[in-house]
Amino acid sequence: MTKWQPPVGSRQQRRHTPKADLSQLYQRALIEALRKLDPRMAVKNPVMFLVWVGTVITALLTVNPNLFGVAETAAGFNALVTVILLFTVLFANFAEAVAEGRGKAQADALRTTQTQTDAKRLLSDGGFERVSSTVLRTGDRIQVNAGEVIPVDGEVLDGVASVDESAITGESAPVLKEPGSDVASSVTGGTKVISDTLVMRVTADPGEGFIDRMIALVEGAERTKTPNEIALTVLLAVLTLVFLLVVATLPPLGMYVQSPVSITLLIALLVALIPTTIGGLLSAIGIAGMDRVAQFNVVATSGRAVEACGDINTLVLDKTGTITLGNRLAEELIPVQGQTVAQVATFALAASVFDTTPEGKSIVRLAEKLGATLHFDPQTAEGVEFSARTRMSGTDLPDGGEVRKGAVEAIRGFVRSRGGTVPEDLEAAYERVSRLGGTPLAVCQNQTIYGVVYLKDMVKPGIQERFDQLRRMGVHTIMLTGDNRITASVIAQEAGVDDFIAEATPEDKIRVIQTEQAQGKLVAMTGDGTNDAPALAQANVGLAMNSGTQAAKEAANMVDLDSDPTKLIDLVTIGKQLLITRGALTTFSLANDIAKYFAIIPAMFTGIGIGALNIMGLRSPQSAVLSALIYNALIIPVLIPLALKGVTFRPLTANQLLQRNILLYGGGGVVAPFVAIKLIDLGLSVF
Ligand SMILES: Nc1ncnc2c1ncn2[C@@H]1O[C@H](COP(=O)(O)OP(=O)(O)OP(=O)(O)O)[C@@H](O)[C@H]1O
Ligand SMILES: [K+]
Ligand SMILES: [Mg+2]
Question: So where does ATP get bound (predicted)?
Fold first, then answer.
């Protein structure tokens, strides 16, 4: 077994967004951190806002130590506390600003692809006019020539051209665009025609195209808090309130034991106890999660979608092209009782002349290689397009004959409906192909079945390992295919999916998702066709292929620019990593309190001899408080890299992960501050 690879970096990362210049990124973030001190912005983070309020009070106490008339600490000490608290707030602001800054740098890079150009708008009289690309509207028809940038998103109406999509995918190999085909006809503004000419219909107004949406997303303009993030924010606010109440009971307690406590020390204790570490890093973790998805060349419509990936219980995948390589090519023609290979070739060719699918084209190639020729004039015949519902395609001949090819079950039904019988050895041919994991297509004309086409496909190398990982994470995988049961079971076994559904219709996709959801499960699926759109919308996470139709892209909440359906597996990993990082840092943050408590409480009640609590042997009450606060501030920038990168992820079940994290981040969170605070205390003795 090969070792688990972390998701990020294991794949080619986006190339068109150069790594932001780090020093420039930090400079911008520093300025942003200061700007975020504005109370109107600061109040959005209740935990840090309380620290901010504390900073203002200790600043006042620096100016006038006896402001509240009680036994106060010296102005110099108050000044030190003020500075440390201010840095605590700034560090948290900085963490958020750095995370946001990476998105902004990406957005800038994307903007450079948006050049305002001239466009050739076609007029109804057949002529054209030159207009600025900014005046184009949905429904306009434009012509784009070789060497020109496609100004807006659209759909190809006429012409075949190769397009350089590296501006959005980072992939330099040109992509063929042509009308008609579901997948190849959609073009994106900002990409470039490198050969030939396209006539296209505009499908998005300026400012609302795909790249515009991407910019808005990476810039965080549409970033709203996710449900999990809101829940955690509320929890942290409640915890903060509880600590505030606890600390508020200390002055009367102090009076009672004749050891009055100072306001500065109360604020210090409060700041030390409230969850500032996670409070300061929370939004950075969320932004970094979206960023990681973007680096994988996936555009997510919201942070909610990214997070949902981490909660996925069930992954619904289709077979062809997702689990298998998908370029199903005709490998062999198998005649049935009383027929010859030549006859199968003749009718397979006849059934495929109008079939533009890769399967159809490969059948034509094989039949022609075997010497088959058309036995009719294609000008007078009519193609019957393949549909996933009928699972057949073919040709209606001028003499009224009907040539068909398709799923064996479908052809059986067709032949019987025309009064024919099914040859006995069809089953054997069908089984032979299916057991090889291939797709058998039966070929018939009217009531006669001539034989079977073997469409060969292969399971993607390495996919089994990925399903193993998903299983260890507790994600249930279901393969959905229009193919027959035997082929489906062979491929399912070879790939290692948990479950499969064969002979699935498009409606089955949405039904499977609904059934799973009814059991309280969160479901993810990928798709690219218009008929996938409802299922993509129904799924909790719908990943559409960039090469797919506009409808699929709009229904989905994520679009993969590389059009790689297996990326869903990476997204689940990224989502889980995001949730785990948040959980780990929350655990760490709360576990830290124990040491801070032991540092500050003895310092507060020096008068009543609870020196026994000073188990760290800190030098003086002042040094103890300052050390705890310095630790509390510094731990934020120390953890920024972890918040941005995410904790190391292992494919384990939720329970195993919980145990591991409690041990690592809970245990570490208890021990680390004892050591660190002691060291800071020793360091302070130098002064
Ligand atoms: N061009 C075609 N002409 C005739 N029949 C076809 C053609 N392509 C596929 N079929 C048959 O129709 C069935 C369903 O096709 P469909 O594309 O819906 O599913 P699939 O590609 O087999 O599975 P998946 O959903 O995993 O992609 C195929 O299994 C095959 O038997
Ligand atoms: K704290
Ligand atoms: Mg398919």
Answer: 355, 359, 386-393, 405
Set 291, 318, 570, 593: catalytic member: 318
Q: Provide the CB-side half-sphere exposure for 50 (13 A, CA).
A: 24
What are the backbone dihedrals phi and psi of residue 394, each rounded to the nearest 5 degrees, phi first?
A: 170, -155
483 is in an annotated binding site: no
For 165, the token pair is: 């999509």
- Ligand 1 pocket mutation pick from 356, 409, 481 by most atoms within 8 angstroms of CB: 481
Classify the C-alpha dihedral 395-399-400-403 as positive or negative: negative
User: Of the residues 182, 349, 362, 386, which should be mutated to test ligand 1's pocket, given the most ligand atoms within 8 Å of the CB?
Assistant: 386
pTM score: 0.74
Q: Establish whether 359 is an annotated binding residue.
A: yes
Helix (H, G, I), strand (E, B) or coil at 490: helix
CA distance 249 to 608: 17
Structure confidence by residue, pLDDT tens digits, 598-630: 888 888 776 665 566 677 888 888 899 999 999
Taking domain 329-456, whether its CATH number is 3.40.190.10 is answered by: no
**Residue 166, Cα to own-chain centre: how many angstroms?**
20
pLDDT digits (tens, 9 = 90+) for 178-231: 887 656 788 888 888 988 899 999 988 878 887 787 777 667 645 667 788 888
390 is in an annotated binding site: yes
Query: Of 312, 633, 680, which is closest to residue 473 (Cα–Cα)?
Result: 312
String of b and e for 490-503 (b: at least 16 CB within 10 Å)? bbbeebbbeebbbe
Q: Kindly report the CATH class assigned to 137-205.
A: mainly beta
ipTM of the complex: 0.95
The ligand 1 site (C-beta within 6 Å) comprises 318-320, 355, 357, 359-360, 386, 388, 391-393, 405-407, 439, 441, 480-483
318 is catalytic: yes
312-325+459-572 adopts what CATH topology? Rossmann fold (3.40.50)
